[in-house]
Amino acid sequence: MKEEKYPWQGQVVNKSLKTRDGVNICYQTLGTDKKKPVVCIAHGLGARLYAWAPILNVILPRYRVITWHYRGLYQSETQESIRRFSILDHAEDLKSILDREKVNKVHIIGWSMGVQVALEFAHLFPERLEKLVLINGTYGHTLSTGLQPLFRIPYMADLLHIVIETLKSRKESASLIRKVATNKKITGAVGSLYSTLRGSPYFTEVLQQYADDVLGDSFNNYLRLFQELDAHSAYHNLPEIVHPALVVWGDLDPLIPAYLSRRIRRRLVNAYTLRFWLGTHFVHLEYPKRAPNRILRFLDSHIIEPDV
């Protein structure tokens, strides 16, 4: 990955901690100035820091950043029986990281899966939160609405569960997907085409890295997390979340329909909107200047300095 696109790479410090249930979680920090406020990044499912380059390039001069690998993915472990793999567990993992880093309050930027984690954290630990930025996400029951951008399709969730369980149980099916999706010629061509169409330089590298990551050793846990996202809902908690929240979406999102972001915005009591009429599921990459700069302005307004 080119240095000019990712100037913050040298700032990444990898750390780990053991959670309350004995799971080793890998997390990263960027920035060492304790006087700066902290932004926590809650990844989309399977993503890592490379998927946040436009936002990191903008916020790092003013903020410290903390992020982590969800339990069961990449360098983070999980229990052998996967008994604690829910969205609540991921939110509690973030709280443990903040305790370890002695960070009292944070802003959270969540994308896709990270929106559900951020909303769960806001419900469980409201005293630890300053602001929310919710990008291309939903409040829960992901498989019931995913891939249904216009209206809900009967039995779609059941079908997606069958697909997931088939991929988990039949290694030959997963192997075929892995062979196609990790082909550099295919991902390179798709990424280059999309980068050209959107006028954004990030998609080729992001797509190739994402395919390599999610189709590796964590693939079964990656699939299981889709089911955990479907089992979770923060819908009933939304009116109780009083923190300022910027809800960001693209109207052409085929994965998590835009109407779910609009529903989140209506139910939150202190919500602001950033809407991209031609955006899809990757608005922070599709609009690498407009989206990050608007997010920065939202975070900067009425900044409360952290306790030192």
Automatic annotation (TrEMBL):
GO cellular component: membrane
PANTHER family: HYDROLASE, PUTATIVE (AFU_ORTHOLOGUE AFUA_2G14860)-RELATED, MONOACYLGLYCEROL LIPASE
Alphabetical list of InterPro entries matching this protein: AB_hydrolase_1, AB_hydrolase_fold, AB_hydrolase_sf
Protein name: Pimeloyl-ACP methyl ester carboxylesterase
Domain AB hydrolase-1: 37-286
Gene3D superfamilies per record: alpha/beta hydrolase
Organism superkingdom: Bacteria
One Pfam family from the record: Abhydrolase_1
Organism: Desulfatibacillum alkenivorans DSM 16219
